[in-house]
């Protein structure tokens, strides 16, 4: 029987605004929100903490199966992420964990271990998801799939500002280089690569601010009769 609970998938590389837009949309609709990248980040953080190296696939799978992740949403904004009793909200956003999450997420067994956990977020009245393979693999039956893109230089600039505002010491060329490496790894992996679903709507946010992007997305939601 088809699942009648609607899902809006928002996929794309980082720095396109998809995280912010997904959260705004979930708040506006009163739906649940899944930050799938955070699951890979928490797993990467745990592996580093427990000194599991990234080539120990079986150990990574066990960690993934045992992972306890708790998301707190405050006024529609993801305010805290806990792994067990530890607040990892800031720790999972460091450049080290960012690259590590991209490396371990390329592993098919790791992705498999996190699959059902992601689908379990589909609860009434609906779900907005943010990721790389939400429309292609996790929720292929989603009634609305968006794929956000933006020019890499602009994405690097946004990411640089975001990291700076969090007090993380970085420079723009390093951010651009890390972003390009991560995009290539995410796009070229064999399992669930970063790519638009065939039925996804592409949104280029290079020249759009968050409010303009949100208005465009809301129009797609209305076109699809989801509100
Ligand atoms: O969206 P993010 O930057 O938090 O994601 C971190 C990494 O996790 C990203 O480089 C690739 C991986 N990821 C993934 O493989 N599939 C997803 N659905 C979400 C993230």
Please give a quick description of this structure:
The chain has a single domain (about 1-220), classed as P-loop containing nucleotide triphosphate hydrolases (Rossmann fold, 3-Layer(aba) Sandwich), CATH 3.40.50.
Main features:
227 residues; Rossmann fold; 5-stranded parallel β-sheet; 3-stranded antiparallel β-sheet; 9 helices; 8 strands; 48% helix; globular
Overview of the molecule:
- The structure is a single chain.
- With about 230 residues, the protein is of the alpha/beta class.
- The protein has a single domain, classed as P-loop containing nucleotide triphosphate hydrolases (Rossmann fold, 3-Layer(aba) Sandwich), CATH 3.40.50.
- It is about 50% helix and about 15% strand.
- The protein contains 9 helices and 8 strands.
- The protein has a 5-stranded parallel sheet with strand order 2-6-1-7-8. The chain has a 3-stranded antiparallel sheet with strand order 3-4-5.
- Helix 1 (about 20-30) crosses helix 9 (about 210-225).
- The structure holds 2'-deoxycytidine-5'-monophosphate (DC).
- 2'-deoxycytidine-5'-monophosphate binds next to helix 2, helix 4 and helix 8.
